[in-house]
Hints:
The complex is a heterotrimer. By secondary structure, chain A is α/β, with parallel strands linked by helices. Chain A is built from 11 helices and 14 strands. Chain A has 2 domains: 128 residues, Rossmann fold (3-Layer(aba) Sandwich), CATH 3.40.50; 173 residues, Response regulator (Rossmann fold), CATH 3.40.50.2300. In chain A, the strands form 3 sheets. Chain A has a 6-stranded parallel β-sheet with strand order 2-1-3-4-5-11, with helices on both faces. Chain A has a 6-stranded mixed β-sheet with strand order 7-6-8-9-10-12, with helices on both faces. Chain A is globular, with a radius of gyration of 20 Å. Chain A starts with 6 loop residues before the first helix and ends in a 15-residue tail after the last helix. Chain B has a domain of 210 residues. The longest helix of chain B is centred in the C-terminal third of the chain and has 28 residues. Chain C has a domain of 229 residues. Chain C contains 15 helices and no strands. At the B-C interface, strand 1, helix 6, helix 11 and helix 13 of B face helix 4, helix 10 and helix 14 of C.
Amino acid sequence: MKLAATVLAAAAALALGASGVLAQAKDHVKVGFVYVGPVGDFGWSYQHDVARKAVEEKFGDKVETTFVESVPEGPDAERVIQQMARSGTDLIFTTSFGYMDQTVKVAKMFPNVKFEHATGYKRADNVSTYSSRFYEGRHVIGLIAGKMTKTNTIGYIASFPIPEVVRGINAAYLAAKSVNPDVKFKIVWVSTWFDPAKEADAAKALIEQGADIIMQHTDSPAAMTIAQENGILAFGQASDMKQFGPDAQLTSIMDHWDPYYISRVQAVLDGTWESTDTWGGFDTGMVQLAEFSDKIPEDVKKLAMDARDAIAAGTLHPFTGPINKQDGSPWLAEGEVADDGTLLGMNFYVEGIEGDLPK
Amino acid sequence: MWRLEARREPSRSMLLLTPVLAVALTVIFGGALFAALGKDPVAAMQVIFIDPLFDPYSRSELMVKGAPLALIAIGLSLGFRAGIWNIGAEGQFIMGAVAASAVALAFYDVQGIWLLPLMLVAGTAAGAAWAMIPALLKTRFGANEILVSLMLVYVAEQFLIAMVSGPLRDPQGFNFPLSRSFHDSAVLPVLIEYTRVHVGVLVTLALVIAAQVLMSRHILGFRIRLSGEAPRAARFAGVDRAHVTWACMGISGACAGMAGMFEVAGPAQQLAPSLPVGYGFTAIIVAFLGRLSPPGIVLAAAIMALTYIGGETAQFALGIPAAANETFRGMLLFFLLGLDILVRYRIRPRRREVKA
Amino acid sequence: MDLSTLDPIALIVSLIIAATPLVLAATGELVTEKSGVLNLGVEGMMVFGAISGFAAAVETGSPWAGFLAAALGGAVLALLFGVMTQYLLSNQVATGLALTMFGLGLAALIGQPYSGVKPPSFPRLDIPGLGDIPVLGRLLFSFDAMVYLSVALVAAVWWFLTRTRAGMILRAVGENHDAAHSLGMKVVPIRLAAIAFGGACAGMGGAYLSLVRVPQWTEGMTAGAGWIALAIVVFASWKPWRVLVGAYLFGGVTILQLNTQALSLNPALPAGAGLIAVGLVWLGLSLRAGRPADLPLAALVLGVAALAFGLADPRFQIGSAWLSMAPYLVTILVLVVMSRDRTRAALNAPASLGRVFHVSG
């Protein structure tokens, strides 16, 4: 799996095999979006829709955007994508992992339509893939959490044991541990991306177990609301959740799809669109942090900002050895940096995390 | 005041008139809803009800979406006629899909034309077996089949999740709770090129006809109708209620399981936790909209599929939110179910009690 | 395994809060079913109550107004079902399912301007002095008013059904509507009232989610709670106090699962604990009623529980899906045991449940 590191350059600079896709400038582009949740989830789908609106704002009359929300992953998704492609849409963003096979299948039938699939790994001449290096954000919030916890217990609400989530846990834990050797992570798997009541209950359980900072890898702002109620701290996920926890939110790891979507629409307008694979982080602006809370002391703020800048500049990698796996076996040697392949398939905890990874 | 008088025979004219009336009322109230949302009601109706019928691809998708609804509803209608309430078709659908997938994945390295029939047998049998649990608990212990079959839906849903996160998970799938994609011999052949209309649609049609024959010509159909319409007469006629229960539950479960097999081997080609999208529950409504008769069910399934497909197009063509489509569909169902009374009853002005 | 941080009182407190929406919705559905009507639209009424309560609370700034609006909203939606099934004689199963679809859609539509809005907070009842009593203070006096109200509701429904004439009439209607009719009882109005009551309770249960337990509004936030409420009514064998037990058990399974994870325990433990709790409850009930026939069954449940503990050995990984099945399997078991003895079943399950009532002529 090849991954181009930078998005903005990628579209223009790379001249990969673009056979079958005619490079032709256009003066009007129709862009479609397929969302897995309702646009009002204040998490994953909401944030994609924010970027859709940014595209509209940026290009004005030159684009027309449409979307279909709450599309179940599976046979229904294939029909929605195909209907979109048939209705004269030039560029289609399918924004959930579970749309992968459907996107590739429809793309085969519509060689002149461009497809962009989020978080997947299957590409074609007219299918690009894109995702964010959320774990870079997790590194920064890990640093803040490690410095700010008083009980040395961080609560983590996790969804499913897929590599993206495991990577986030590991990144946050390693960063927190690096500034606070006594820190402990309590991880609760809720087996859902979106169930506000269950997420709220998980947050309560973690608070009862002594967590004074909550991190989440689920989509609803329920945990933030609970943190606010209980007077503890939390990090937002996907969108800025400050309105749900004005006192609780330290910062939020925001999915920021605007720059990517704008660049891809621009590429179609220019006739320079090509199939690419993008995994962008702080460097491309795809991962951003919400405004830091005043509760974070100045020195911690500086530590976090420096880490973010170093990651963006490429001088710091959240997974730099020596790192052992949970069972004590060595993973990365001193100074060694994790390769993207391992990160993309990560299915193990690093040393120090308690509990078993659910299978 | 008005009163209701039961008709001896369902009214033929009302049978044809009420769906038209229901659609008309839905168009009026739904139109008002869309207009209130600032959308053009005429355009919305056109996109939802008319456009899909004149577009070849949408027509093919109507079959893909409508076939499982019709197949499950046909099975359920037998039991509903006998007064046996299987509302767990969703669970039987899931078990059918899981069993068929287990077969497909067990022979992942083997190709052969025998694979699809084997999957069909496995899926059908699993659905029937899952439905036999409430049937047996009903006949043996008198446990209410509505509640047992409903409980078993949740058990089946959890079973599906356990399977795709465990034994049936794609070993190369990065821990995602998904199975491998099926290889070609485990995928149903497509009938019309460039569409997803699969063999299952044909089988469904054949079963609709079979159901019609069964209900009107076969002794089992007679027993089913008798034990639903006149339970006491049925007992005198020597109809064994337990046998009817087993037959109805078994057949409806088999149909639901078969629909699950068609769905997973047809459009899905992979087992995923998101596979069940409520076909089993929607089919109950379809069965009643179709007045428990095979031709009616086919029509009702088509209308239901139409609102799904039209609703999706309305979202991206007109920006009508998914929630509005769902509300609209709810309205249509209420009108259809509510007006059903005109078929079975006559509305008469209440006679004066005191004669002058 | 570190149990030092385990606070059983905090655990029970959060369990009770998690179960309260279930208590409310299931109690309402129990009354509806006792009148002989099966309304499968609980999920739709709950989610509709969640948004109407949320909207009203936000607009007026008063959570009490929210709960009132939720009860009204739930009742109105339920009456739609009532008119359909009682006057237009549509099938209850199909109409209930349609009601769920309609309620989910309508709630999402109304709720669009309310996502991301913060509701007014619903204060805990702090009775001076009482809350400071060690253990008992936290266990009994640390909740918000709705928790007490939900328990009071269960008590009131129990009293109504077993001790009042009106309750007897309601049960008679559910038992045999033709006989009730010939005795001069007004079957349809009584059922409409029961349906509306069920809707109001479901609406309040939904509002408890959106105003207290989560608190915020998001589309589809009930996430199946209405269906669990239906299961609880069966589990409780149509007895109000058992609804309370059932709701706490069902709600407890999730809470225990999350808490044991936070404790880094094997998640199979709550399944075993849950099964043992069910077994003991069952044992207690059957002993009290002097029915030794249930003893083998209780022993069976305890045996299964022991097995679950055996499997809790870390060598066997039990996925959480298997655990989530347990409450439903137990419900089926309860239903079977209850139905086994026809005379006893007749005392609990309303015989006319789901049947159409129509007076000819």
